[in-house]
Amino acid sequence: MTILPVTHDDVSDVVRAHIALQHVSYAHVADGGHAAALWGTYDRRVADLHDAVDAAAAARASGREPEATHWVARTDRGAVAGLAAAFRGVGEWEHDLFGDAWRPSGAAWCLDTLYVMPHLRGARLGQRLLDTALRARPAYLWVIAANESAMRFYERNGFAPDGFIGRSGPGWGDMDMVRMVRTA
């Protein structure tokens, strides 16, 4: 597997894989409209990812670290095998969803995305993607509470629930989710 930063040429493949992996990962707990809601975001996600690729390139060109990084793992034949993304700061959706109840995690970086094709789980690709996206930085992430295997993976990597829980909102199937934080 090769892990590289997402380029404009990768965007369409990455967005399709991201949506498909979200659906597969949560089909056992999401309602029937979850997949349709995810696919309904395709065009916006493509535009947002193109913007993120441009912003990362501009930051690197000026000698700065990008505020967001997006990574794609591909097989030797070029198929998408996994995805990761991290950003500095807090997602707008968190403030929108939680309003006045929102509180900071104490970590400057957020792991926004980490997915591996199901047949490759257990092959350490998830670990490689996590390490590439975050390095050893303190960070936080959100995980659907019913995704016990993901929670165990993150716990092995130093993340722990910080007590802030919530619901994912209607666009994401209104599922219980847990914020996990790694401080060192």
Automatic annotation (TrEMBL):
Molecular-function GO terms, alphabetical: acyltransferase activity, transferring groups other than amino-acyl groups
Family matches, as SUPFAM superfamilies: Acyl-CoA N-acyltransferases (Nat) (SSF55729)
Superkingdom of origin organism: Bacteria
Transmembrane regions listed in the UniProt entry: none
Keywords tagged on the record: Transferase
Residue ranges constituting the N-acetyltransferase domain according to the UniProt record: 1-184
InterPro entries: Acyl_CoA_acyltransferase, GNAT_dom
Pfam families named among the record's database cross-references: Acetyltransf_7
Name of the molecule in the record: N-acetyltransferase
Source organism (scientific name): Propioniciclava sinopodophylli
Phylogenetic lineage: Bacteria, Bacillati, Actinomycetota, Actinomycetes, Propionibacteriales
